[in-house]
Known about the structure:
A: mainly alpha; Ferritin; 6 helices; 84% helix; 0% strand; B: alpha+beta; Immunoglobulin-like; 2 domains; four-stranded mixed β-sheet
Amino acid sequence: MNKSLLALALTLGLGSLAGVHAATPAPAINDAQIAHIAYTAGVIDVTAAKQALQKSHSADVRAFAEEMARDHAAVNDQALALAKKLGVTPADNATSQSLAKGAAAEQKKLAALSGAAYDKAYADNEVAFHKAVLTALDGTLIPSTQNAELKSLLETGSKLFHSHEMHAEHLAQSLK
Amino acid sequence: MLRTMILLVAVLAFAGGFMPAVAADTAATAPGRRVHVILVDKMAYGPMPTGVRAGDIIEWANHDILEHSATARDGRFDVDLKPGASAHITATAGTLAFFCKFHPTMTGSVVVK
């Protein structure tokens, strides 16, 4: 797992634990920040998919990348429409920034690879990425979300990430 | 002129002969034929219909924001479901086990008698 994703899981995980132990109100993460984190995660995976479509010649890897690009773009389009409807501007925050920075570094590493080595690294990273985002979604983001429509969209996103993670694991195993 | 009229009538009759059949297939207006709709939303198929008989219509209505499919495990059918779209098949006897080829965690099964 790359550092930013690990940071995401740890930061959000520790945030919720701190809330339990201190018996204080919910962690200070609001819907606008949650929307931004979820949206950033989607953008990261679409960007990774576009890179895969440029670099990979594997039919399986390309099919997977097309699925990631299509699904995450659809969810993000819906997230933007919802934000507009609710009059909420997704708020940039340290977690989003850390996530984007780490993803950029990961993409740079992947860019230096080619052929089978690239395919394997991309698939492995997709497994780690989806696992990390799922941990954050299910453990912190969804429970912390106040708006019912945003919560519903994130719940759909969680199911989507579960499905993608399963697909990524099958892909990674097939490339061994 | 007469030829044109005859041709026009023939064309209309030809078109009319097919259009009701297509409409009947969609609306299941044929006697004893029923439509069973399976809603698709939030990365899941809705409740599976019961009491389905061979010749009935099984329709999938995709209310989700994502593209899905209803793909038979035995290869009998494979329908794509764009967001907001519907598609149907005519049921044949047996157990119709299907999944979404884009999201294999989505599965369903309908018993057709």
